[in-house]
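Form 7-S
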Amino acid sequence: MAKSRSTYICSNCGKRSAAYLGRCPNCGQFGAMEEHVEHANRRSGKSLVSTSGSQRAPLRLADVDLSQEARIALPIEEFSRVLGGGLVPGSLVLLGGEPGIGKSTLVLELSAKLAATSGPVLYVSGEESARQIRMRAERLGLRAPELYLLTETDLSEIISQAQALDPTLLVIDSIQTTGLVAQVRHCAAELQKLAKGSGLSILMIGHVTKDGNIAGPRVLEHIVDAVLYLEGDPFQQYRLLRGVKNRFGATSEVGVFEMSGSGLAQVPNPSEAFLEERMINASGSAIAITMEGTRPLLVELQALTSPSTFGNPRRTPNGIDVNRLLLISAVLSKRVGLKLWEQDIFVNVIGGLRITEPASDLAMAMAIASSYHDRPLPADLAIVGEVGLSGEVRRVGQLPARLNEALKIGFKRALVPKLRRRANDLPAGINLIEVRSVAEALRAVLSGD
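Output:
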């Protein structure tokens, strides 16, 4: 005998509750708790997940066949890097970004180039007509006889056409066309079944909210295999494709593109692009070596200090976390003795990038001190290191890769944390200035102060 039990699940975030709640305690959504009836065996107490369908015997891990799981090579290398080396057959990928950032442009370029090299691609749009997509393709100079367009919002018809065409890639632009939360979740679940059952790779485009998160139910991000964000300052030409979830590769990988009149062009050497307009021997400028996934990037941090005319001096960051700026300002005031409590501080990351890792702390501190003393840092100096509350400079990971990137760009010196032991894979062509504290770093590169 089996008895029934009701469980209420939030359609927005997946929170489970034994009783109905008008407001989800996890995500705060009103009216999102939906009833789900589970049947349990009275003797065993286990839920009966499925009562029909064929039963599959469990497989040993060593017996799983991987011969058919070779990645699909993508013609856009930066896109392939973020996915971990290519598109996995049967994977479900979600691409999000702000309106007008270039999501549809990038995906249309990828679809056209992939159709020219790897077979048919089905591009489904619920927001544009086929004529509008053709006009955009003409503007981008795309020619792809094997790129098929379908303007449809009926999921069953989309699945039927995809099964008939058997494309290399299915593009859904966009998954939020239906609008309702329950419909978005249902469509994503059906597309997941299609991908896992047939081995078809599916790329979905999603919108983001004003908070920067992908719109719709949060469970949408749990269903897919990879979540990518296309980021960038709308006033800058650079766009970053960042992976925040990837079941088949490393997360936090970044691909760099440049927006132009003919679409999004790959930037093969981002460090050189970010530093090409750098002003040599300008006070308040420091070069930080940051890591985006497995890729080292050299970016310019600019700082400006000026006497405050208000009782509370301002701390204005652009491209960094305001809490890191407050921390570095406090360390410079307390541990080094800079009178920053009477200075407004502005910090900017050039190129529209956003730096989140603490390894840029020392570069930020040096830029602020350089602006405060109005003395430029050496033009051939790259900086990396994390700053602690005691003013100490802490070690960072992947130092050889960072230094090799700096040496390739042409930097001769690097300000780094004190090394306990010198690794064999450190480059020999760059002079290391090892420091234990922020005060020691200031004495090393701003001597005479």
